[in-house]
Every structure is written in structure tokens, then in C-alpha cells.
Write a structure and sequence with these properties.
Order of helices and strands: EHEHHEHEHEHHEHHEHEH
CATH topology of the largest domain: Rossmann fold
Structural class: alpha/beta
Number of helices: 11
Number of strands: 8
Number of domains: 2
Helix content: 40-55%
Low-confidence stretches: none
Strand content: 5-15%
Length: about 240
């Protein structure tokens, strides 16, 4: 079997990128070393924060993302995935910079909703303020015939964004119990708003979420991307 060479852009944050890499390993149909994919993992922690760029007009991450693409292009990478959903705001510009296939989790989430949850009426989205501001989910899910439900702006910042960006939040080396509680409160707020399904639209949600403790179906954007990446690279 000819496997495709994979490039992963990590560092957004580093734990989320490593978590994605582990999922690629876990889902690979491999019995020995040689069965696994050849992977170039670039933990590009120099990439400026995506939400700060989008919301507060701070430095754009695009030039630094292109540095990862240059590394992959030099090493004949055929497939690329990123451990940050907000970064897919720059998807079109990145596609123009490489001949590799960049797999987009937003497309994959939309496809999964259409195929497996056609009767869902209210979809709750947990994602960064940067992702919300770009309208990525509203645009990609508009053909799913479901209402998009998000946290109100104050709770978005006080619960979700704080859990991710606070000292010892989900972007930190050590994650506090307070960060876990704030994330659970954000999830609970969506449940309170009577959503039929929750989408984890930020890779830090993947780290925090215990799907068995949620009363509604949960779609993990990072997990779906990992599964599709493995399938594509193995030609399945």
C-alpha cells in the first residue's frame, strides 16, 4: 500500500497539536513501525495567536503558517492538517501556497452533520471568538438546515475564552481545575439553551470534553479530522 506523506502544523497550541498527532497514531491501521505514516510534525509555536489577529487586529499568523508550508513543500508532503480550527480562516491563502491537499475540518463536520444527523434542529458551537467572528461555522453549516447556537458574548469571554487563555488554562503546560470547571460551565450553558447536538469547534475543547458526561450528541472536530486524515493518507 502506498501511503501519503503527512504534514501536521502544531503549536496552536502545542498540547492540542500533540493530541492530534496521538489520534493519528491511534487510528492508523498499523501492526509495526513500517505500517505507520511518514509524518512531519512542525510544532510551530511562533505562529501569532489567530483570535488576537482576527478580533484585535494584532499580527497575522499567515506568514508564519507559510513557513510551515515551505517546510512541507521542501519535503514533498502530500497531505496537510492543522491542530487549530481558527487557523482555517486562512485556508484559501494556504491552499494557493502548496500543491499538497489541506484537509479542512469544517467541511468534514458539515458532511458528518448532513449524513448522520439530518434531523438535528439546533447545533451548539464551542469555538474561539476568532472563529465565531469569521463566521466559519455559520458559512459551512448553512446547508445543514439547522440553527447555529453560540454562547452570548459575555459568557463566551468569561467562560469559554477564559478557560482556554487564562493562566493554567487549556493552552498552558499545566491545566487547572478552574479551567476545567469553566469549560464545563460553557458546555452546560449550551445544554441550557436546548441544543440538540454540540460541535467541538476548537481543539482545546477536544482536550477538555468528556462526551459521556454530555446529555446530547457531541461531534469532535479534531477527532473527525484525525479519522479523515488517516483514511485519506492510507487511501481508504
Amino acid at each position: 500500500m502506498k501511503k501519503k506523506k503527512l504534514g501536521i502544523i502544531g503549536g496552536m497550541g502545542s498540547r492540542a497539536g500533540a493530541f492530534f498527532f496521538k489520534k493519528i497514531i491511534d487510528y492508523s491501521p498499523a501492526d509495526n513501525d513500517q505500517d505507520f505514516l511518514e509524518i512531519i510534525f512542525h510544532n510551530n509555536s511562533t505562529i501569532p495567536d489567530r483570535t488576537k489577529a482576527i478580533v484585535y487586529n494584532e499580527p497575522s499568523p499567515l506568514a508564519t503558517l507559510m513557513q510551515s508550508l515551505d517546510l512541507f513543500n521542501q519535503n514533498n508532503v502530500e497531505v496537510i492538517a492543522m491542530g487549530c480550527i481558527t487557523a482555517y480562516h486562512y485556508y484559501n491563502q494556504m491552499c494557493a501556497h502548496t500543491n499538497a491537499r489541506i484537509l479542512n475540518p469544517l467541511f468534514i463536520i458539515a458532511e458528518d452533520l448532513r449524513n448522520n444527523y439530518p434531523d438535528i434542529k439546533r447545533v451548539g458551537i464551542l469555538a474561539t471568538t476568532g472563529t465565531m467572528r469569521t463566521g466559519l461555522f455559520h458559512r459551512e453549516l448553512r446547508e445543514c438546515n439547522a440553527e447555529i447556537v453560540t454562547l452570548d458574548p459575555q459568557k463566551q469571554e468569561d467562560l469559554f475564552m477564559r478557560s482556554v487563555y487564562m493562566k493554567n488554562g487549556f493552552k498552558s503546560a499545566v491545566i487547572s481545575q478552574e479551567a476545567h470547571q469553566l469549560m464545563q460551565d460553557a458546555i452546560g450553558e449550551l445544554i441550557h439553551r436546548k441544543v440538540d447536538l454540540i460541535v467541538g469547534g476548537c481543539t482545546e475543547v477536544s482536550i477538555a470534553m468528556d462526551a459521556s458526561a454530555v446529555q446530547v450528541p457531541y461531534l469532535d472536530g479534531l477527532d473527525l479530522l484525525a479519522r479523515r486524515t488517516v483514511d485519506y493518507c492510507y487511501g481508504r
